[in-house]
Amino acid sequence: MSQYSSKSTGVEVAAALKEEIKGKNVLITGVSPSSLGEEVVRALAPYAGLIIVASRNRVRTQTTVDAIINQTPSANIKVVVLDISSTASIRAAAKEITEPIHVLINNAAVPMAVELSQTEDGFESQFGSNHLGHVLLTSLLLPNLKQAAAGGEVVPRVVNVSSIAHYSGTIRFDDPYFALRPTEYHKLVGYAQSKLANGLASFSLHPGGIVGTPMGASVSKQELIQYGLANPDGTYVNPDEWKTIPVGASTYIVAAFEPSILEHNGSYLADAALAPASSDGKDQASVFFYAAKFLSLIRILQDLAERLWALSDKLLGIKF
C-alpha cells in the first residue's frame, strides 16, 4: 500500500485499484450532496459493475446520482430508499436488493443530536442508527454477500465507517438508550458509543477530520474549541491534519478493495492504511510486557464484542 498516503484522494486510490473494482457490486448507505458517500460513489463510478446507493431521501439521493452519471455516463447506479434509523425501512430496502454484493459499505450516520431522542423503534437515535441499523442491514444482506462469494474467487467485504471518536466511547450495556440516566446524555457521548460499536472480510475505518460534510456541521466551533480541536479564534488546531472530502474518501476505497489487507481481517484503517499498533518495543523485556498486555486486552475486547453482539441481537430480535 506504499503508493497511498494521508493525502491521497479517493479518485486516485480507485484508479490504482481499478482492476480490483471492475465488475464488482458495491452497496453504500448514506449518500447525499457534499458527503463522503457521494465522493466514494464518484470515485468508484468509472469501474464498478453496479453501485447500489441506499439513502433516506430519494429526491436528494437521485439528484446526487444524476450529477455523478453526468460526469461518468457509463456508471451503473441503482437507488434504494433506506432510512437507517427505521428497522421497517431497512427490511423493506433489503427486499429490493436481489443482486450479489461484493462490498457493503455501512456509511450512513445521523447528525449528533443535541437533545436525547429516540428512533421510531425506541432506540437512542445515534446507537439505533449508526450501530443497530447497520447490524440489521448486514444480517439481512448476508445471503447477497454469500452469493458474491459463491464462485470462490472473491472474498466479499463489509466496511464499517467508524470514527476516531470510538477511542473515548464506552458501551452502556445496562443503559444503551440513556433511559435510566438521561442526564448523562451528551451528543458526543452518544456518538462515541455508536462508533465504538461499529467494527467474509470486515474492516472499520476513520476517514479523518473532514471539513465540509453534513455530519461535521453538527459540531459547533465552540465544541471544537472545548475538545482542543480549534483555537479560541475558531481556527483549527493542526490545520494540516484536517482532510477534504476527496481525501477522506480514500480510506473507504482502500478498505473495500486493497488486496494486501485481506490477511488483516477485522482491522481498523486510517489515512488510507492499516492503523499502526502502539508499542514502544525498546527492548526484549518491554516486548514481552506489551505482548502480555496485548493478549489481556484482546481477551477483554473479545468479551465486549460478544456482549455487544448478544445485546444487538436481543434489541433487534434477530439471531445474526
UniProtKB/TrEMBL annotation:
It comes from Athelia psychrophila. Belongs to the short-chain dehydrogenases/reductases (SDR) family. It comes from the Eukaryota. The keyword Oxidoreductase applies. The keyword Disulfide bond does not apply. This is NAD(P)-binding protein. One of its GO terms (molecular function) is oxidoreductase activity. SUPFAM superfamilies: NAD(P)-binding Rossmann-fold domains. Keywords: Oxidoreductase.
